[in-house]
């Protein structure tokens, strides 16, 4: 704050006089003067600030530095009716330094309600402001010990006196003063918690907490709990943030009140009757917010002792009374199973998830040797009950109730979060219960149900959701016993499929609640089917039923509303997963798949484009592995799919939004027909040469037909970049595959180049050319062995230098595209670029001009070009000679241009240019010293920095440390400071 | 891992379990022996309602260095994630995750995931991390939107 000792004293005097004046008026006429309370509060805040200044360690000792207790000063000022400077002229030392005895303090606060309120208010403001200051101001910890020694004593006296008065009163006190006591207590709890780490130790609030517990349980009649909710909130904050503030004995007492049971011993149920009455009062009167606060408080309290409970329950180190523990667990389970709707009405079950998770983690972390002989059975018996409770709590029946009662989505989100938290708990409990007590039981329970109603399906859904979580962590193909369990009862899969079907049947309703729950049914069911897809590879007898059901469900989707669209998406994702995983097992269904796909791509089909594309990919997976019947059969299937797509396009070729997704379908088919790396079907491998031969000759002319289709669509949509992108994807599909892999889209280089040139000449360069060039790069990479410098010249001319030259040079993105293309050649086969006719006539001079570019990606590309040209591991001996000649003649100009561009660029782009300088130092050390010595003075006048840079560059010899030297030079030349550490 | 790092990560886990934004998930991964790996978390970022991203919950991996919280965690989407400020490797380019920029040790997991969620629909074209999404966002917004929606379907909620 920067106040001097001379400034603090008069400010203190002025403030306290003004405060005393206002307070005295307020005490006399509280109702009239109430509006001045905000000024009183501000003056109290000012006094707090002055107090902090006065206690500053660095302040010289004077009258104000003796000020230890603002609360006492305040009481003294009011007692003396201090309303002018003269009145205190002889007594300032007394007001600043004297203490107020307990009897006087209590006498003052008892003198009037207003006086009491003002003292409580000042006490609250003092600690609140100090708490705020603590976060921002360093070096005030010494103040806490003075505070502890003086203010704490006065404040506790006032607070506890007030609390005791409430305990002893015979009537309900709902006054402003009554509320102020609890605000003051809350502020002191926050302050003592924050200041706990000082050398003076923690300020003890035990007496206050004792009184709070008494007041919490204070009850006038059976139905009145005047202080319970506010005190439970206070204790809730304490247990959430700093539970050890409450001493052990009081915690034991609170445990008895909350639970009527104790971890370690049988209890007398002291106070628990009150708790039961209070809960009943909240439930009967539907005070759900207060019930939530109680749940938060109780569970936070329980979590303080989770590890202790874990040790007592499960380890040999404990000699706790097992009957008491049984009783304790029983109460906790009852609390978890609180008989109201979670989230909507009760939060005990919601918050207890965390408690059980902690207990479960605690058990899982125990070392085997210290677990009691019956520890694992005990743990299993507890967690089995927890599973049962939560399977019921997480059911969509509760979500339905929430949906019916609340338009706001918040509670739904909270409920969904609750379900997710339960799933995490299930995952953790699996470590205790294992498959036999959890996974197998869930599978069996799903199979045992004969659902006839929505309520039954809620149960199935909850169990499927839990099972999906557990199965997601397993590799089913490596767990034969899980497959046995899943396959042991047909009704299991039947019910899962039924869940999906029921969701799909119900989604057509207009009722938003039903729509939401239907989507959940489909989501849970399809996700489980996808998760257990590997099971169908082991046991496929129900795969057909499953796929048929999914198809029927998909047939009913028409994207008529958000729910319908979502359901369709879930179904197609499930189908795709099943097809990908079970491609062998689904071969017999291929004709059905082809028929479904044909219907999907028809113009009148209502399924989404995404579904059409994913389904075509799914179908492609099955065609891919259909090798047993030889390539001819595969060719026929591919032809059928293609013809369906062609037919679909021909139904509305003028509709671009219809044509584009169908072309993407074709691309998806191409992707699906890429043989997976781990594909080890022996029949297929044996027939590989036949497949290769077949697709080379392509007797059904599929490639020709596809090309004709693409040419046709291009003729209509030549400037549509999205169509060009898909065309390029289709044409380049096989380019990333090894030559020996057969593929129906394996076009030869000549065909692809012809395709690219046609597209290039007709496209809108700024949007279409990038896709064309990506494919051109793939061509270069694939055919690099046979490419010649003349081919490179041809490509560069056709795609960049002829038709599009002006726009390529004007548009930094296209310029960068061109540079990247050249870089890709330098990366794969540099000789074809170095020996091309464009190398010295265009690339070198133009790319030199591009070095001072402003756009980051261009800078990145062009500096990479020069770096690759100076130093390239792919260079042959001849390439080295060619580039050496080039760099030797170009060196001074390259060095000057690079340094000039570096000098003018922004700091974040320095490293790009630094890379060029580093390779020049490393490869052309002798010459580079001369080049840079000549170049630097032309850039700016900073001789010492230039000299230092040259020295550092040569010391670092092109290592990464050179970049630091360049940065230092750049900063020095721009008169910018070094901000890096250690500089 | 330092004790400070461990303590802070335990605190983060506790805080997250007690209070996290709806629709998000985050939890430590498991080591091969089944124990919890507090230095590597898996999390999901839901797209904000009313945006192109709304249909998806996007998976991220959060890796905390040994000197966390002095140093920020590394946040990664799956490789190839389509967004102008996500590197091809999936690493997120966000100032609060950059030690040299806005990282502060007090930044919590909740703030990080909310920051990443904000980034999804508010890309910063001045800090490009990948070319395809950046180029489309800058020059062909229609294509950008189409690809974002397609990606959202891939990661559907």
Q: How many angstroms does the end-to-end distance of chain A come to?
A: 31 Å
Tell me the helix content of chain B.
25-40%
How many distinct helices of chain A?
49
Name given to the CATH architecture of chain B: Roll
- CATH class of chain B, named Alpha Beta
| Greatest interface by residues involved | A-B, 29 and 21 residues
What structural category arises from helix and sheet content of chain B?
alpha+beta
Name the average pLDDT of chain B.
Answer: 92
SS elements, strand count of chain A = 0
Q: How many DSSP-defined strands of chain B?
A: 4
Order of helices and strands of chain B: HEEEEHHH
Oligomer: heterodimer
Proportion in helices of chain A? over 70%
Largest sheet of chain B: 4 strands, antiparallel
Strand order of the largest sheet of chain B: 1-2-3-4
Report mean pLDDT of chain A, rounded to a whole number. Answer: 90
Global morphology of chain B: globular
In the predicted model, the low-confidence regions of chain B spanning at least 5 consecutive residues are none
For this structure, what is the CATH homologous superfamily of chain B?
Ubiquitin Conjugating Enzyme
Question: Spans of chain A of 5+ residues with little confidence (pLDDT < 50)?
Answer: none
What is the number of independent domains of chain B?
1
General description of the model:
In chain A, 72% of the residues lie in helices and 0% in strands. Chain A has 49 helices and no strands. By secondary structure, chain B is of the alpha+beta class. Chain B has one domain: Ubiquitin Conjugating Enzyme, CATH 3.10.110. Chain B is built from four helices and four strands, in the order H-E-E-E-E-H-H-H. Chain B has a four-stranded antiparallel β-sheet, covered by helices on one side.
């Amino acid at each position: 704050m920067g106040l001097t000792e001379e400034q603090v004293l008069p400010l203190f005097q002025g403030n306290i006089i003004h405060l005393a004046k206002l307070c005295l008026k307020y005490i006399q006429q509280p109702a009239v003067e109430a509006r001045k309370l905000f000024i009183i509060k501000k003056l109290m805040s000012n006094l707090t600030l002055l107090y902090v200044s006065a206690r500053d360690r660095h302040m010289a000792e004077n009258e104000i530095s003796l000020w230890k207790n603002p609360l006492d000063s305040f009481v003294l000022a009011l007692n003396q009716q201090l309303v002018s400077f003269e009145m205190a002229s002889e007594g300032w030392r007394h007001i600043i330094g004297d203490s107020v005895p307990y009897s006087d303090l209590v006498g003052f606060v008892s003198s009037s309600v207003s006086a009491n309120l003002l003292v409580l208010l000042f006490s609250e403001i003092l600690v609140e402001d100090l708490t705020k200051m603590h976060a921002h101001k360093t070096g005030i910890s010494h103040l806490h010990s003075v505070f502890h020694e003086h203010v704490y004593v006065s404040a506790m006296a006032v607070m506890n006196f007030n609390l005791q008065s409430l305990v002893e009163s015979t009537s309900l006190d709902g006054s402003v003063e009554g509320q102020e006591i609890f605000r003051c207590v809350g502020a002191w709890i926050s302050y003592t918690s924050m200041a706990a780490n000082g050398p003076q130790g923690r300020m003890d609030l035990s007496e206050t907490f004792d009184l709070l517990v008494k007041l919490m349980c204070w009850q006038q009649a059976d139905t009145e709990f005047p202080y319970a909710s506010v005190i439970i909130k206070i204790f809730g904050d304490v247990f959430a943030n700093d539970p050890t503030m409450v001493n052990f004995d009081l915690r034991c007492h609170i445990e008895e009140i909350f639970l009527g049971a104790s971890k370690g011993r049988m209890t007398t149920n002291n106070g628990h009757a009150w708790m039961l009455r209070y809960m009943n009062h909240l439930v009967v009167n539907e005070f759900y917010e207060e019930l939530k606060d109680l749940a938060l408080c109780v569970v936070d309290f329980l979590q303080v002792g989770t590890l202790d409970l874990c040790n007592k329950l499960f380890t040999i180190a404990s000699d706790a009374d097992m009957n008491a523990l049984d009783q304790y667990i029983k109460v906790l389970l009852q609390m978890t199973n609180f008989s109201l709707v979670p989230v909507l009405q009760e939060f005990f079950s919601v918050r207890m998830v965390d408690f059980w998770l902690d207990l479960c983690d605690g058990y899982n972390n125990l070392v085997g040797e210290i677990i009691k002989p019956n520890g694992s059975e005990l743990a299993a018996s507890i967690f089995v009950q927890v599973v049962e409770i939560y399977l019921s709590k997480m059911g969509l029946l509760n979500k339905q109730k929430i949906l019916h009662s609340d338009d706001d989505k918040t509670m739904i989100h909270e409920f969904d979060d609750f379900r997710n938290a339960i799933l995490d708990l299930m995952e953790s409990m699996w470590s205790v219960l294992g498959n036999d007590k959890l996974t197998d039981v869930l599978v069996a329970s799903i199979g045992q149900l004969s659902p006839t109603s929505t309520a039954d399906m809620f149960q199935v859904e909850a169990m499927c959701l839990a099972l999906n979580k557990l199965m997601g962590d397993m590799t089913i193909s490596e767990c034969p016993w899980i497959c046995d369990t899943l396959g042991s009862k047909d009704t299991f899969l039947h019910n899962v499929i039924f869940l999906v079907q029921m969701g799909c049947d119900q989604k057509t309703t207009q009722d938003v609640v039903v729509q939401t729950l239907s989507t959940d049914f489909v989501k849970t069911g399809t996700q489980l089917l996808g998760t257990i897809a590997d099971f169908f590879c082991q046991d496929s007898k129900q795969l057909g039923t499953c796929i048929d059901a999914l198809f029927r469900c998909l047939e009913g989707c028409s994207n008529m509303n958000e729910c319908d669209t979502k359901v369709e998406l879930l179904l197609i994702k499930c189908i795709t997963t099943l097809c990908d995983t079970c491609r062998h097992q689904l071969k017999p269904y291929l004709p059905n798949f082809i028929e479904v796909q044909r219907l999907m791509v028809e113009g009148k089909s209502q399924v989404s484009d995404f579904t059409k594309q994913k389904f075509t990919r799914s179908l492609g997976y099955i065609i891919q592995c259909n090798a047993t019947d030889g390539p001819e059969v595969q060719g026929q299937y591919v032809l059928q799919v293609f013809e369906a797509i062609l037919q679909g396009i021909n139904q509305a070729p003028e509709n671009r939004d219809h044509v584009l997704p169908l072309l993407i379908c074709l691309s998806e088919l191409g992707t699906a027909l890429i043989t997976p790396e781990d594909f080890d079907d022996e029949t297929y491998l044996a027939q590989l040469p036949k497949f290769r031969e077949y697709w080379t000759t392509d007797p059904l002319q599929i490639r020709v037909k596809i090309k004709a289709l693409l040419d046709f669509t291009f003729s209509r949509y030549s400037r549509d970049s999205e169509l060009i992108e898909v065309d390029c994807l289709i044409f380049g599909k096989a380019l990333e595959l090894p030559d020996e892999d057969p593929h129906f889209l394996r076009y030869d280089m000549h065909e692809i180049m012809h395709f690219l040139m046609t597209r290039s000449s007709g496209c809108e360069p700024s949007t279409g050319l990038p896709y064309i060039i990506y494919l051109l790069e793939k061509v270069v990479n694939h055919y690099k062995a046979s490419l010649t410098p003349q081919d490179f010249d041809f490509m560069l001319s056709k795609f960049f230098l002829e038709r599009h030259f002006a726009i390529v040079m004007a548009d930094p993105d296209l310029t960068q595209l061109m540079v990247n293309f050249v870089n890709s050649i330098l990366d794969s086969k540099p000789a074809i670029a170095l020996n091309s006719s464009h190398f010295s006539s265009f690339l070198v001079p133009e790319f030199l001009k591009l070095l001072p570019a402003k756009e980051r990606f261009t800078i990145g590309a062009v500096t990479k070009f020069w770096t690759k040209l100076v130093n390239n591991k792919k260079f042959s001996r001849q390439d080295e000679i060619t580039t050496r000649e080039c760099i030797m003649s170009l060196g001074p100009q390259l060095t000057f241009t690079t340094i000039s561009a570096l000098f003018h660029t922004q700091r974040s782009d320095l490293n790009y240019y630094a890379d060029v300088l580093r390779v020049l130092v490393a490869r052309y050390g002798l010459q580079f010293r001369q080049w840079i010595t000549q170049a630097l003075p032309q850039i700016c006048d900073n001789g010492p920095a230039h000299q230092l840079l040259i020295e550092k560059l040569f010391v670092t010899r092109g290592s990464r440390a050179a970049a630091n030297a360049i940065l230092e030079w750049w900063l020095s030349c721009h008169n910018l400071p070094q901000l890096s550490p250690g500089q | 891992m330092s004790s400070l790092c461990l303590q802070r990560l335990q605190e983060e886990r506790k805080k997250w379990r007690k209070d996290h934004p709806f629709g998000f998930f985050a939890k430590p991964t498991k080591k091969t022996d089944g124990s919890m790996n507090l230095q590597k978390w898996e999390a999901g970022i839901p797209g904000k309602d009313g945006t192109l991203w709304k249909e998806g919950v996007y998976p991220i991996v959060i890796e905390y260095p040994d000197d966390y919280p002095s140093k920020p965690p590394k946040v990664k989407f799956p490789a190839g994630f389509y967004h102008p400020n996500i590197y091809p490797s999936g690493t997120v380019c966000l100032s609060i995750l950059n030690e040299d920029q806005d990282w502060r040790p007090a930044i919590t997991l909740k703030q990080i995931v909310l920051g990443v969620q904000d980034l999804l629909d508010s890309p910063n074209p001045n800090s490009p991390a990948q070319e395809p999404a950046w180029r489309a966002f800058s020059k062909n917004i229609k294509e950008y939107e189409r690809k974002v929606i397609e990606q959202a379907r891939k990661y559907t909620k």
